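Q: Here's a chain of 122 amino acids. Please give me its 3D structure as C-alpha cells.
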Amino acid sequence: VQLQASGGGLVQAGGSLRLSCVASGRTFSSYAMGWFRQAPGKEREFVAAISWSGSSTYYAGSVKGRFTISRSNAKNTVYLHMNSLKPEETAVYHCAATYSGRYYLPAEYDYWGQGTLVTVSS
C-alpha cells in the first residue's frame, strides 16, 4: 500500500483544514488507518484512527471534539477534518495503515505516507 497525504498549509489559530490521504492498491479497505503528527524535535504523536469499516474511531485526548477522522473505501481515501487549530499543533501530519488493533502505537503501522505540513499561526 502506498499512501499520499495532502491538504496541509498555513492557517490562523482557530481555523480549519481538511487533510486527505489517498492509498494505492486494492487492499485499502482491509486496513485500519491512522493519523500521526510530528513537530520539530518531538516524537511522533498519535492523533486519530479509524477502523477498516469506518464504524469505530479513536482520538487523542488533545484533539477530541475538534478533529474528525473519516474514510471512503470506495475512494481509497482517509480524511482528517481539523477545527479550532492551535499554534502548538504545527507539525508534519502523516497517515498510516495497520492491521493491528493497537492504533495508538506508531510501531504497529505497516505503511506510512510522506506527510503534509500544517502550520498554525498565532
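Q: Can you summarize the key feature?
A: The chain has a mean pLDDT of 96.
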